Amino acid sequence: MNALPVLFGSTISHTWTPGANFAIPFDSRRLVNTYRVPIEVTELRWVVKNRTVSALGILGSNLGLLLAARVWSGHDKITGDNPAPLAAFGPPIQACRFGGGAAGVALFSNGEIEPPTVIPALGGAVTMISAFHFRWVLPRPMVLPPGEAVLAQLEANDLGAGIPAIAGAPFTADVTFSVVGRYMATPVPRTRWVPYLSAYQWRQIVTGAVAAPEARHPQRIFQSPWPGKTLHVQRFLGRIVGIYAAEGANIDVVDLSAEYPTFFGPPAALNMRVLAPRGYAGYVDPIPLERMFDVQRRVWNAPHDLENQQDLWTFIYENPSNRRLPMIALVGHREEALS
Amino acid sequence: MARIIQSHTVPGAALAPLAPAADHSSGIAYEHPVQLYGSILVPASGEAALRGRALANTLAKTIEVHEIKFAVSRVTDEAPGQPFAKVSMGGVISAHLSIGKVPLTNGPVPIWNLISVYSRWDEDAFAAAANEATSIYVWKLARPFHLPVGAQLQARFRHNGLVRQSATVRVAVAGRMVNRTPRTTFAPFASCFVGTPVDVATALDEVAPETALANVTGGPLHVDRFTGRIAAHEPAGTAIGGVTPISFSDSNHPEMSDLYTARLLASDGRPIIRDPVIFRSIFPYATAAWECHHIMPPGSYYTLFLAKAVGVLDPYAWQRGQSFVGLVGSREVPL
Question: Would you call A103 and B252 a contact, using CB atoms and an 8 Å cutoff?
Fold first, then answer.
């Protein structure tokens, strides 16, 4: 508790094109424990800066929804089978977006609540800087032995070919991934707690009215996939990714969960149900997504244990538009042996 | 019946939550909440000390202090409709605090470096011309400290001259009375490095001196957090002494902070931030602080390496940047 803190991180600058995607790894030399003593990792942080300079594209978007990461340490996966959108790494109370808007208008926000931005032309180009900060305070600190790294790779979050305007819109971002913790005064223990974040982004849901079919994620998304190990679930996190035409030819991708309820109309038609493992009764009946998750933090604290191979299932009903895509994440931790 | 002193209500500042009325294990009984209050006008580029016994404990019982609140006001003189007239006065005014011979700050420390952000909305002061704009900061103490009967919090404030208006600093010390004075208490302590103001188009490498982020208390310091801000300020309006920015804030154009990276080493050589990391990754915008409780040995210090990259000047970018990095904690002192 009283040991010296540490922080180390790495930055990627890259132009991504959704739909033509490949993963970019962070520099592992910056993410390895060279401190000669074990480190207790307490937080993982992301800072995303939108460097897109273009008259077209996704200038006003929340890049935490458009970028996704795989994170692991040694043999232990920290993210699940799917890359986790960066917005799943922290409740938005820990995130921010800001940017320089039109002349004389400064735009910033503590959350991700941002009105569509009118971008001024400066010298013939369009400029915009926005930044997002996502901070994952781990459910339990993770021991990082000397010489071991927390590795991450980044890719564009695939929102599906059903969103053609997004599929071809390149964007440039600087993404910094940081590991925060403290020196440990004790030797490397035999086991450690490894955090786990498994997220699923619905790509396309049939547009339709009340009678639209339910949509379900694949198996293993919300599961304890390690033989003989229990996953201690801490919380769920849910967001509604909204895609809309913005100023000019821009397309904005934002989190609609609690934003602009009057501008966009209530997203209440996106109903969700969670089923417990193996025939147990449903955790909840179908309820609107924005009611299932805390409006401010998009979080549902639901501490419980998932035994090995047990699944949770989530269903989405009654989606009114294919421009509203739910994203659900599960956050927990499990115990792993250290070699 | 003890008095409740609250001579002035500080907007936006709440009383500390109250614990049970008695701690039966120690025999301490908690009584009424109490708030001491004082204010002083600090001239532009000048200094002023709080006079009299405004922040003295003139009650019959020891005060257990939970938070120190600052409300810093200026009277704006921007032209109506002028953009970017945004000032966070906590970066303009530094506080030098002590109780008798016990220093609470290592020299003057900018007020915004005492806290993790309480409310961005309350920090950035907007107002129409000729109205008072107030920035509010609440230093919530990780451990309460005790102000014995007769003791006084002495406060001196310094104006950095980077906005042209004088400032009225209002200080409120909030806590509650206790019926017993402990033998020791945890006195808060803050120290800060203030970097060189530099144009956005100029690169800069700086190293904080060994005296800046230092534990000069003579005992182990329980560090609660590092605090970090990058001020962006705009040379505009009427200049005094060459440059007088009309705006001074770390939130309006945070792209200034994108230009900064930092490394941090302990004085025993151990790295805290091993490689240069972008400033915002260390100090999130939402809090401007890195909460990292640890103990800093007496006489030790941290060496901060800051690098600022060259930015691009455009008509809307703020023109100068300045770094502020502090550490905040507490140490045990006898009463």
Answer: no
